[in-house]
Amino acid sequence: MDNSVYKHDSVVAYLQKHFYRYKLNAEGNDTLRWNGKLFQYHTVYKVHEMALYVSGGNVAYPITAVIDTDGQPHYQLGALDVSAMELTLRYFIEHEPWETKAQFAARMTPRWK
User: Fold this and answer.
1) What's the rounded Cα separation, in Å, for the pair 27 and 33?
2) Exposure check for the chain: N or C terminus, fewer CB within 10 A?
3) CB 29 within 8 A of CB 40
4) Stated pTM of the model
5) Is the CB of residue 73 less than 8 Å from the CB of residue 51?
6) What is the pLDDT of residues 10-22, one digit of tens each?
7) Residue 22: HSE in the Cβ half-sphere, 13 Å Cα cutoff
8) Please, how many CA atoms are within 13 Å of residue 113, restricted to the half-sphere of its CB?
């Protein structure tokens, strides 16, 4: 994904416009402070606590996570292609409050080629 999806012009532009981005090495030992809490490498589980948090404990690589304006993480496991990334990112910015991701996907017109 680093060499394809995250270098795609439309993905880069949309991320820069709408999101704060952070790439986390889930097996790294960086200490992060977010929302008043410290997240560190967990020596028992052998994974970073932030990866556990954003994935709800369902760690698999890669993980694409979006933390919404209420501070709630939403994640998607596995590698995403450009069309799946478009749906994921645009859903969080453009969906109606009542709309599920599946409902949004049914009406969304893909724009990223």
Assistant:
1) 17
2) C
3) yes
4) 0.83
5) no
6) 999 999 999 988 8
7) 14
8) 0
